[in-house]
Structure formats: structure tokens, C-alpha cells
Amino acid sequence: MGALTPAPAGADGLGAIQAHWNAEQQKLMAQFSTGSGQSAKDRRFQGVDWQTVAQYRLLADAYLATSQSLLQSLDAVDMQAGQKKRARFFLKQYLDAIAPSNFLATNPEALRLAIDSKGESLRQGAENFSGDLAKGHVSITDEQAFEVGKNIATSPGKVIFENDLFQLIQYQPSTSQVHLRPMLFVPPCINKFYILDLTPDNSLIRYLVSEGHTVFVMSWRNVDTSLGNLTWDDYIASGVVKAIDVVRLVTNVEKINTLGFCVGGTLLACALAVLRRMGHDVVESATFLTTFVDFTDVGEIDAYIDEAFVAKREQDVGAGGVVKGSDLAFAFSSLRANDLIWSYVVNNYLKGHRPAAFDLLYWNADSTNLPGPWYCWYLRNTYLENNLVKPDRLTICGVPIDMSYIDMPAFVFAAREDHIVPWRSAYASAATFGGEVEFTLGASGHIAGVVNPAVKNKRSFWQQRSIAVPLDRPAEQWLDTAEEVPGSWWTKWVEWLAPYGGRKIAARTWLGSQAYPPIENAPGRYVLTKMS
């Protein structure tokens, strides 16, 4: 932290931490009086005034030193590990909120803008705040810059099936020949599917179509009170399993390939476990992107979820009702509060700027509502009790669930900096499957790690030199022996997928079938519904 020095080794008592804090404050005051010392490295305080004006540099350094001391003090307290983790999370939330950069009177950049603009930045900031207050959330992108179906989610295709739960989109081929077996994408129902089809340059859907695959995507319904009684079983039977059946019928194949992303991957895993337990062999391969099955370590979101919280949600909406997407969006944003909340408070309100247009953040803000019974089942049986990894502990659609029944080849992708599905948890989840698994670790986070277009050749990924190395050793050992490969994991994935696609046939230029004729153009109606 800039001018700060680490706490002394072994300083695990509150007295030692207090003494260290006192010494840091004295050092900072001495540096202030002489004009010496390093500037804070924290990016909240990287502006010229923070770096060059001694008073503001002292303020930033004192805040960082005090924050560090408070967190160390909590770490030194003897308390149950789960309670300490929760307390540390909420203390960090408080410390992030009271940063001097978040207040006009203590933010030199905002003050300078106000003076230079003769107050115009403050007027614009107040206008931005008023607009966000009406919308109910802090704007993180220019929401007027994007329109679904116009400049995002534009891959050509048709909706060929719909029920109360989802629409099924089939995409237009862009090659003269395609693989025999089609691909079904199961996106998260907590968000909208077009994270996989943002723009032509970063669309995973368009990329896979260009590689000669027939692609189908589920577009989940943004539920309202009329659908507030839907359950996890409904999302399996009337959702994923129904989509698999329709794709098989439309393409006239016995087996298809599948992909699940985030909670869509969890839904897919449950559906596959149900199908295989029932003796149905209808899926050739399964791909899981940043997916939980083993919820032993869920990361920082664990701070919100305990028995009392889940019981209260069950009381409120467990028998029926709607969980607002805005509540879920805020919870996930708070996991990276400085990046996804406070930086925009400063930019939008204190400085009077408008957020830049960014397609990924537009998608991030376009949340969906969830049915209460589905949500409560999910919280209790995954985050709270981790029941999916306990063979036959759960019954879904009348079938005992055992993840080892998922015996088809699987490709599992995790992101190294993922704060929503920690990569070690994705690795542990992959080990629950009963078939051959290829695990790949990508750079970056939960979304940026997945959306890493091959054409841009950015970042890197890690893989084992030997295909399908057993996942029966600790994740760190897997990483120690993995090879880092520059570029996008997409190219690796399509190489892995190609054999499971089967032989090449003439492209399916007619979308849908006689039984499932086209209903409307992609991206369909369901994705356009905003949360209420």
C-alpha cells in the first residue's frame, strides 16, 4: 500500500497490530512534514492531485494504513472461521464505502473538476444521480448505446420453439457444410443469453457457427408473478431436457453436444444426471464454462448465505413469488464493490461524467428475475448444503441424483481470477463426473475469461500436455504441471469438440422443421423483457 510497510512477522496479537499502526501513522506524518515518501499504489488514488498534493497523499495513505490495521485486527480475533470470513467481508464493504475518494470534500479530482467547470460537473452529477435513482441502480455503462437485436445479439437465426420457460433459437449456418451433431447452449437463467453473442467480433455463438456447427441456444424467460411458482425441477424437465428433445427432433439425430455456462452449467449437469440415470443416452459431449457442481468453496458470496438468510427467503418466496434481478445484481456487484459500485459513484456523481459504452457491462446490468421456489431450492441445496455432490441425496424429476452418471466426454473451463466460481471449485466440480474430462484454465475473470475471442489472440490458458489427465490430485498440483498457452481457449475447445460433432453434412439452411416451424427472428421476444 504505497508508503506502508507490512505488519511484523508473527504480529498476531491486537497489541502488536496497534503498535504497528501507531508506527505507520508516525511515519506518514514525518513524510508529510518533509514532503518525502511514496505515493499510494491503490488505483483509487492514482490521479495527479492524489499523487502530488501532500495533504491528499497523507489522507489516502492514512486511510489505507487504517484499513489494513482494522482488517489485521479482525484476523487476530479468535472466532469461528465462517463467522470471521463473514465479518471480514462486511468490514471490507464498510472500508470501501468510506474511502476518501468517495466523497466530494475529500476527492481532489472531483473538486478540481467542479472549480474548472464552474459547477457544471456538480450539476451534471446531480442529474446523473437523479436518473439512476429513478432506475434503481448505479449506471455502469451508457445504456442508450446498445439495443438487443440491433447492435448486440445480432447473429442471424430463428426462434423455433417456445414455452412459458424459454425460447429455443436456431442459428443460420455460415458454412456450406456442418457437423452432423448440433450444439445446444444452456446459458445462466440469472442473466440473459446474449453474453455469448455480444458483437460479431466477440460472439462465441457466431464463432462456433463459423466452425461448422449447428448452434441452438436457450433464451430463458424473465419471470413475472405469473411464473413465480416454478421450481428447479421445472427448469430441468420443461427447460433443459425439453430443449435437448427438440434439438434432436429438429436435426433428426440420436445424440447432440451440449454446453452450460455458470448456473446454466449446473442446470445442464442436473439434467444430464437425470437422463443418464433413466438410461437415456442422448448427449455426445458436455462442455461446462465456469460452472459449480461442488459448492465446498463458493468464494466471497458465502458471506451472504447462511441458514438464517436461506430460511428467511424460504419464508418469503419459497412457496411462490419473484426474486428481483436487481437484488441479485447488487449482491454480485458488491463482491467487487470498488470496481462495480464506488468507481461509478465517483465517475457519475462526483465528477459528472457519463459511463462509457461497454457491451459486457450493458449485459451485466440487464438482469433477470427468478421464481422464488427455484431460487430457494438452489440456495439450500447448493451453497448451503452442497447436496449435488452427495450421491442419491437429492431427487430431481423423480430421479436420485449422482453426478458420476455423467459419463460422456466433458470439457470443463474455469477462469483463474473468477470471484463467482473460484477456479479450484470448478476443478473440484469436474472431478465429480464419471467420464473422461478435459480441464482447461483460462486467464481473467468469470465473464472476461469466457468471452476471449480467438481473433483477438489475447490472454492465455493452461492445459495439461497429456489429454484427459485424471483430476484426482489437488488443483494446485494440476496447475504446477500445466502448460501455459498464449491466446484464446476457444481454438483449443473447437479442436476438442470436432470429433464429437461427427461427420460433415450439407448445411441445414432451413431452420426448424415441419413440427417446429420458425416463430420469429432471433434474438426473440423473451430476451427483450426487462426486469420489473
What integer value in Å does the Rg equal? Answer: 25 Å
Strand content: 5-15%
CATH architecture of the largest domain: 3-Layer(aba) Sandwich
What is the tally of helical segments? 17
| Biggest beta sheet attributes | 11 strands, mixed
* CATH superfamily caption of the largest domain: Alpha/Beta hydrolase fold, catalytic domain
What is the overall silhouette? globular
- Judged by helices, strands and strand pairing, the structural class is alpha/beta
Mean pLDDT: 92
As for the CATH topology of the largest domain, it is Rossmann fold
Q: Which consecutive residue ranges, at least 5 long each, have pLDDT under 50?
A: 6-11
User: How many structural domains can be distinguished in the coordinates?
Assistant: 2
Q: How many DSSP-defined strands?
A: 17
The termini sit apart by 42 Å
Determine and state the CATH class of the largest domain: Alpha Beta
Order of strands across the widest beta sheet?
15-14-13-12-7-6-4-5-2-1-17
Helix content, binned percent: 40-55%
Q: How are the elements arranged and paired?
A:
Elements: H1 14-34, H2 48-52, H3 54-76, H4 81-97, H5 108-116, H6 120-135, E1 157-162, E2 166-171, E3 177-179, E4 183-186, H7 204-210, E5 215-220, H8 232-251, E6 256-261, H9 263-277, E7 283-289, H10 307-317, E8 322-323, H11 325-334, H12 337-350, H13 359-365, E9 370-371, H14 372-384, E10 395-396, E11 399-400, E12 410-415, H15 423-430, E13 437-442, E14 460-463, H16 475-480, E15 483-486, H17 489-501, E16 504-506, E17 520-521
Helix pairs in contact: 1-3, 3-4, 6-12, 8-9, 8-14, 10-14
